[in-house]
Every structure is written in C-alpha cells, then in structure tokens.
C-alpha cells in the first residue's frame, strides 16, 4: 500500500537493504518494511553449496578424458560478492537475475584451469588413475586464485567422482587390460605349474639325497666295520708277535740254559775225567794181573776166564790141552759159596 512492502528472509541469507544508493540495513535473517520505489534488496545465500561439474581435457598422448566431480564452497564475504554479481531480489523474494549460475561457472572454469596443465602433462592411463592428484590440483588452484578471492567465497573441498576416457578408448583399454589380465592368468598358471614341477624336482632331489645319505651312512658303517676288523686283525697280529717274541725269548733263554748246562756238564765231565785220570794214573802202568788180584774176585768163572786168557797168551808154549765139555759145564755151573 502506497509502495510500502514487507519482506522476510531466513537465517541462512545475508540481506543488504539499499535505500537511495546507500545501505540502510544489512545482516542475516532480516525482516523489515521498506519503501519499494527507492529501495533495492540484495539477498545472498550463506549456506554451503555443492557444485557438480564435468569437463573434458586432452592428455599428453592426445586422448580425451572426462573429469567428473564436485566442489563444496560457501560465501564467506557476501558484501564482496554483491559488488561483483547481482543478487537483487524482487518484492516477492525472487532473484531478478540468475547470477548464481555465473558464480558456479566461474568456479568450474577456475577448477578446469587448475587441472588442465596437469592433465596435459600425463598420459591417458596415468590420468585415469590420478583422481587424488587432480583433487589436490583443484584445491590448490581455487584457494590460490585471485578471481575466487574477489568473489568472497571459501572453498571447502573438492572431490573427483570419476575420470573416464571416450567409449572407443575405454573399450580399447578394456581389451588391453583383459589381454594383460589373461596373460597374467596364463603366467600365473605357468608359474603354478612350474612351481609344482619345481616342488616335484625338489622332492625327487630330496629322496635322492636321502638315498645318497643312506648309502653314505652304509658305506661309513662298512668302513667302520672294516676298520674294526683291520684293527682286530692288527691286534691279533700284535698278540701273535708278542707271543712269538715271548716264545723266542723263552727259547733263547732255554738255549742259553742248555748252553750253560752243556758247558757245566762239560766242565763237570772234564773235572770227573781229570779226577778219574788222576785216580787211575797210578794203575796205568801196573800189570793187569796185579790189578786182577787186587780186585779179589772169588767167582770161579772169573778165575777160569783168567786162566783161559793166560793159556791163550802162552799158547806157543803149550803142547796139548784137552778140555772136555763136561768139565767146562761143571766149572761154569758151580756157584760160589757165600762168605760167612
């Protein structure tokens, strides 16, 4: 009525009430009456906003990639933003212009500018796997951008939701990756089989080494037995040698004993011979007849034997001598009488 209007804003909206070219009221969540013909109201949303984006860039190997993500920001200096963009509202609270889209586009442009130099320096495969690096590049670019600073906004974060190649290149990469995975699978099968063969070889080598070790042990046992037999034979030989040496020593001692005994017997015999010779020396030159008489043998046969010897010695002097058998038999059969 008469140009006086009432308007109300929520707490998340920063309001600037311009009257005759100067700020009459400002603040968040205002509610007031104003005279419409000479008033202009600017309403700037203060809440955080999530800005989705998607843009294309070319990699170092001249391949196109699509980068899709989201930027979170909030308006921290609404008066500076109001100096750059038009957020004027009508009496009903609707924006006269859609400058929020300009704001979003400027942010996206800055994000793409911060990303393009990095994307151009890497290859397609690296670009597809560099989401975290692109996020960091966007954040650094936006936070250091003078244009973003003039807009009075604060960048809260950036997220890369996807990096994709063109459909044709994606299929090519899928084919390449599939072939590579197939090769890796074949390599894994080969390595598994090779490992199985290697394990079988190791098992056989282990068995052979075990057999060799057993044979070596048996050989060592045989050698030990042989050494024991050799040692036993050597000990027996030594015992026999010791026995022979003992026997030789005994025989030598017996020889020495016999030689000594022979020498002693010889000396004894020589002594006895000397004694006998000395004893018989006086009788050596005596007539045997005297020696016979000294013997004093009363046996008549002895006397007859002496008589016959005497006759034999004087045979040349005897003319005839008759000895009858009866006489000889009677002489020989007579026994000497015992002496009383």
From TrEMBL:
Membrane topology category: Single-pass membrane protein
CC per GO annotation: membrane
Limits of the Band domain: 19-193
Major localization listed first in the record, in broad terms: membrane
Gene3D superfamilies assigned: Band 7 domain
SUPFAM superfamilies: Band 7/SPFH domain (SSF117892)
Pfam families documented for this protein: Band_7
Subcellular location: Membrane
Name of protein: SPFH domain / Band 7 family protein
């Amino acid at each position: 009525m008469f140009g006086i209007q009432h308007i109300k804003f929520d707490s998340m909206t920063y309001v600037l009430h311009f009257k005759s070219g100067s700020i009459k009221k400002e603040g968040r969540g205002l509610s007031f009456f104003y005279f419409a013909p000479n008033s202009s109201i600017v309403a700037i949303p203060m809440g955080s906003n999530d800005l989705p984006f998607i843009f294309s860039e070319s990699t170092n190997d001249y391949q196109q990639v699509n980068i899709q993500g989201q930027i979170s920001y909030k308006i921290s200096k609404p008066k500076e933003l109001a100096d750059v963009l038009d957020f004027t509202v009508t009496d009903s609270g609707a924006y006269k212009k859609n400058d929020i889209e300009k704001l979003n586009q400027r942010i996206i442009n800055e994000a793409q500018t911060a990303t393009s130099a990095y994307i151009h320096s890497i290859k397609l495969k690296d670009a597809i796997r560099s989401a975290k690096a692109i996020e960091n590049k966007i954040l650094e670019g936006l936070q250091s951008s003078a244009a973003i600073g003039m807009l009075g906004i604060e960048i809260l974060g950036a997220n890369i939701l996807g990096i994709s190649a063109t459909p044709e290149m994606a299929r090519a990469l899928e084919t390449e990756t599939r072939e590579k995975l197939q090769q890796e699978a074949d390599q894994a099968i080969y390595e598994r089989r090779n490992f199985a063969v290697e394990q079988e070889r190791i098992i056989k080598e282990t068995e052979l080494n075990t057999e060799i070790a057993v044979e070596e042990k048996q050989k060592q046992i045989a050698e030990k037995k042989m050494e024991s037999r050799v040692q036993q034979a050597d000990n027996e030989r030594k015992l026999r040698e010791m026995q022979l040496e003992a026997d030789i020593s005994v025989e030598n001692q017996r020889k020495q004993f016999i030689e000594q005994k022979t020498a002693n017997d010889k000396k004894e015999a020589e002594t006895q011979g000397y004694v006998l010779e000395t004893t018989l020396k006086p009788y050596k030159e005596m007539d045997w007849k005297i020696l016979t008489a000294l013997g004093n043998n009363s046996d008549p046969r002895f006397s007859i034997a002496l008589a016959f010897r005497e006759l034999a010695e004087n045979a040349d002097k005897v003319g005839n001598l008759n000895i009858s058998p009866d006489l000889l038999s009677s002489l020989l059969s007579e026994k000497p009488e015992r002496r009383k």
